[in-house]
Amino acid sequence: MRYLSIILFFLLGACTQVEEKPSYLKVTGITMGVIHYSITYLDNEQRNHQLGIDSLLKTFNQSLSTYVKDSEISDFNNTGKLIYRSPFFYPVLKTSQEIYQITSGAYDPTVGPLVNLWGFGPGEKQEVPDSLTIMNAMKNVGFNKLKFDTDSAHSQQEINLSFSAIAKGYAVDLVATFLERKGVDNYFVEIGGEVICKGVNPSDQTWQIGIFDPRVEEDPTKQRAAIATIRNKAVATSGNYRNFYEVDGKKYGHTISPFTGYPVQHSLLSVSVFADHCMTADAYATAFMVLGLEKAKGILEANRELEGHFIYADELGNLKTYTSDGIKSAILVE
């Protein structure tokens, strides 16, 4: 019996298979014409969701991309009115209105003509416009000139909508929702630098992201200023350190103030906003770059749903940081 037990032990051991854990999958691609995306996720059924993600992003572009001539937003800009054809247009208008009001107009999706005027639009020549041209363009800036409800939008004035400061974040949220509906609980979604994370990474650790150093253009060795450890949060970063041009020794950044019509000039160099939704984080990051350090801090302190990490220059030009209390433990400044 002793030998029989040993034989049975080895036979049963040989038949027992060690179940392999599912591995993380990664898909990458391009959306909105030139914007790269990278998505890492754990699917227990090991399904590749790239076709579904690309289909979703294509439909999204057909709604909100100004590069698509027959998109919903292009139709609105051409006619001044729109009856929605997709589920995407009303939510982005509603969120835009809320943040426009909270930031007293610092986030304004009608600022597009000014962005183009300063040469930061597609194919625009980068040059400093004269004050009269800016003043005329300002007449058609103001989100409050737009009227909308759950079915349609219209304006009596020739405003031009652009959701470039919120669209990437919105797309990130939509992809995250798509994955969750597929039963995916651990994922990292990044589109054009805007991110949302849930669960844990392939090393079974909380996800981490890097925050760029604003001096990277001047010194390529200064790639990263901080590391953020995030769980079940979205983060969007805005700054003028990559997209600018120089005329007669003066730099002009791509963040245009809807209050003045001119590029912002202040000490705030980079803004990273943390929120539950990436669309929200994306819009606030732009608004904070318009408002500057002190006003941005005031909004953060009044809104418990937001956290922020700011990089700014002091009076001597030295880099300083400000991190809101709720996110301090998750930020490692390098």
Give the arrangement of secondary structure elements.
Blueprint: H1 2-15, E1 24-31, E2 35-42, H2 50-64, H3 72-79, E3 81-83, H4 89-102, H5 112-117, H6 131-138, E4 147-148, E5 152-154, H7 167-181, E6 186-191, E7 194-198, E8 207-212, E9 224-230, E10 233-239, E11 244-247, E12 250-253, E13 268-275, H8 278-291, H9 293-302, E14 307-313, E15 319-323, E16 331-333
Antiparallel strand pairs: 1-2, 2-6, 3-5, 4-5, 6-7, 7-10, 8-9, 9-16, 10-13, 11-12, 13-14, 14-15
Question: What does it look like?
Answer:
The chain is α+β, with helices and mostly antiparallel strands and 334 residues long. The protein has one domain (24-333): T-fold (Roll), CATH 3.10.520.10. Helix content is 31%, strand content 26%. The chain has nine helices and 16 strands. It has helices at residues 2-15, 50-64, 72-79, 89-102, 112-117, 131-138, 167-181, 278-291, 293-302, and strands at 24-31, 35-42, 81-83, 147-148, 152-154, 186-191, 194-198, 207-212, 224-230, 233-239, 244-247, 250-253, 268-275, 307-313, 319-323, 331-333. The strands form four sheets. It has an eight-stranded antiparallel β-sheet. Strands 3-5-4 form a three-stranded antiparallel β-sheet, with helices on one face. It has a three-stranded antiparallel β-sheet with strand order 8-9-16, with no helix packed on it. A hairpin with a 5-residue loop joins strand 14 (307-313) and strand 15 (319-323). Helix 2 (50-64) runs antiparallel to helix 7 and helix 8 (278-291) runs antiparallel to helix 9 (293-302). The radius of gyration is 24 Å and the shape is globular. The protein starts with a helix and ends with a strand.
